[in-house]
Fold each of these.
Amino acid sequence: MKQDKALLFLPYLAPYRINALNEIGKYYDLTVVFLLENTVDIRYDQKELRSRLDVDFVVLTSGFNFKKRQIRYGIFKLIRKYKPKVIFSNEYGLTSLLISFYKYMKIFQFKHISTTSDNLSMALSTYLVRRLARSFVVSSCEGMIVYNKETKDWYQEHYRKLKVGICPNIQDPDDLLPYNDIYRKLSENYIHQYALVGKKVYLFVGRFQPMKGLSQLITNFNKVREKNEVLILVGDGPLRPDIERQIKDLGLEREVLLPGKFEGESLFAWYKLAKLFILASNHEPFGAVINESLILGTPVLCSSVAGATYFVKEGINGLIFNPWDSNDFVEKFKLARTMFVNFNSEDNNLMRIDFYDSLRVYKTICS
């Protein structure tokens, strides 16, 4: 049976998207259109990543970037060339607006499916220009794919004719789990390299930027820490000098460590070392690190504003806290300390959502 032609627009290719795109390629004759050669923050080896794609792709770089937005020429030509029956656009920027315009003007005939990383709080509090763009795009769509049930319910209530499905930004466990022995050996090296013998490790991974709530996390950890407990902040970013200064001012040079930025196996080894992963963001569309942590068997303490709370089954693989309430953090941290004391001693995948079941919405939403 001949597959329908589909175009899927994304900003760039990241490692965790490869298996997802290959899976979607089983449902359609798929061409992925990347709007950037690479991400700004992390310089992935794009040649290696693209070699693992089983679907066609185009890198559309003609045009210019305005802040974090991509203004691209050639979208009309792409649609005319490929004649897709389905177009998946991403968020509500100019690319999605152009696709919606072509749909309204009936220049091309296709089903338009939009995807968004908005969680419920973002959907509720978005600024005026984005609200207008969202309304214009969504009104042209047959379907919408969101990351969690709360956001789905909101879209379904406000756009009653819209078909809404859920597919979180999920990673294939088979990308990570076969290498547990490698992670374990690396983590043993970290124990000696960073003087962690006999220590309980609590972990953060991400960019050092205001939305991640790192200053408050350090303050809260200082309130609740016990002897031989260490907070490790893996990553880098513009706030590093401020964080270093805060650690020094609080006298936490041995209790809060900044080993730097890691990628691939070297990064995943940190999860195997940790007793608990903490995401303390005060603004977080999703938080893919929660997915990585759970796959690798590390329970999580997750900010309630993160879209990845969809993965957290409280008391089973993690707990959720209010990032604006220090008392709530302290209470949940103490609870997690005792509740998950024996976790991550074996190679347990703590994800309770199936990768392949989630991606199937890309097929069913067009039926």
Amino acid sequence: MKRRTHPDSHALDDWPLYGPKNPEIARLVDCLAHDHMLRVNEIEEIILTALKSRLKKAGAVGSD
């Protein structure tokens, strides 16, 4: 199997080990990185924005 390269390969390789337990998240991150050439910080910003939006909708304290 040919290994694909990416500027954040190390961080992407660590994601399944140290990131969320749901393997679907790792698969989606891999797709955004390799198929759409997003950097890890861009992917994390998408996640952060989604989480903040969800907390805001829920009226959670500290969602700013």
Amino acid sequence: MRTMTGQPDSGGGADAQRGGGADPQRGGAAPRPAAASGRPRVPRQPGRPDVLTFGETMVALRGSGPLKLGGTMQVSIAGAESNVAIGLARLGHDVRWAGAVGEDEAGQLVLRTLRAEGVEVSGAAADPSAPTGLLLFEPRLPEVTRVHYYRAGSAGSRLTAGVVERAFSAAPPRVLHLTGITPALSPTAHSAARHALQLAKDHGALVCLDVNFRARLWTTEKAAGVLREWIPSVDVLIASDDELPLCLPEGAGGAEAPGEAGAPGGPQGAEGAQGAEKAPEAERTQEPEWAPQGAPHDTAATIASQAKLLLDLGVGEVVVKLGADGATAFTHGGALHQPAKAVRAVDAVGAGDAFVAGYLSALLDDEEPAGCLERAVTTGAFAVASHGDWEGAPTRSELGMLGAPPGTVVR
């Protein structure tokens, strides 16, 4: 596995407090370089793993039809953070996953699968007094899948700050990737995530947060309270358009409930879903205002104003997932929209995690927003066109396959 080099130091910039100079609050850690536009850059720190992520990964059972009728089930694993880790590892990055599994056969399956995919798991813990969580997928209609969670009291939900502490002590990462799922699992998991943010600051690691709101785990009010507290520590924020209000200050947009998971534009909307128009080039504007083809102007303006507010609060980059309409990245230098890739949709589950993996991969490769968005919608499209949470994640050599004409046979 190869370690990617970071962005060259630009010598400061508009966001100097994030990386242009020494920051006494970082405890002497190496400052993170920033471009002149204020865009966050991955620190150049050879020898450190590219990405550390942590959270709960469960055993996943995928039914062949309605569960009440029985039938066959396919056994795998699933978890937002481990999905991202696998996606990054397949693209050639040095990735570590920390979390807790039960001291059981299901936990062994989780760890064995991650190791087989090239993800380093030495920071994981085995809990002898709690089971590994379980996730059931029930395909109910061709376009509708029901998901059933059995994670209350699981080992993963009992994740502690000690697991995160050990992971950072072993090898501080260049990038810390968090999701809004982990703090919703339990008070101890919430504390672990908060501690990770502090450790990232102490070690000069770039912080990426994928909101990933789950209504079954917590309310919008509780989610907003946590996310608003975290925003000043976030370098790259990734969210669907209806998740953005959860990150805004109280009274600046409200904490409206995001759409249902799996709906276009919802937290698991299909980045790269079917029916999207493919544009040859991403379209750049000088101001953070954009409008995907057919999108109402007031909707676009609202998202742009929300993103600008988050940038003003200290976020270096706001990436908004728009389902079949693609995605838009907002930076202090402007906004850039990338249409989705047109593919035949098979399974939208995991598309958001694949999108994040692609975006972080390109960021680690020193790509500008256009390159990051292009790779993100590409990896998202691979997920949409494949069954499973992570099974369809592409390797680096496969990224160009989406451009092949129908019926192509690669020999």
Amino acid sequence: MGDLAELLLGLFWDGAMTSAKGQWLPRPVRILAGGLLLLVFLGLAGLLLLVGIDTKKPGLVLLGIGFLAVPGASLFRAYRRRRPPR
């Protein structure tokens, strides 16, 4: 059962990453694929935080915080690149 879940998540991840980066798809579809990736990533980070706090394991809490920081920094960098200079 774990192998099946890993296979499906791998297919989803690869497909969504390819779709989000590909110029051959319309912009709304790429935004939707990127949004789905962000939701999965944030859900995983929230789950890690919840389990880490519940079991009182600081390693999981730090990993969850790191998983929240990486997409935030990436979005900030993308926003800075797209914003026109003043």
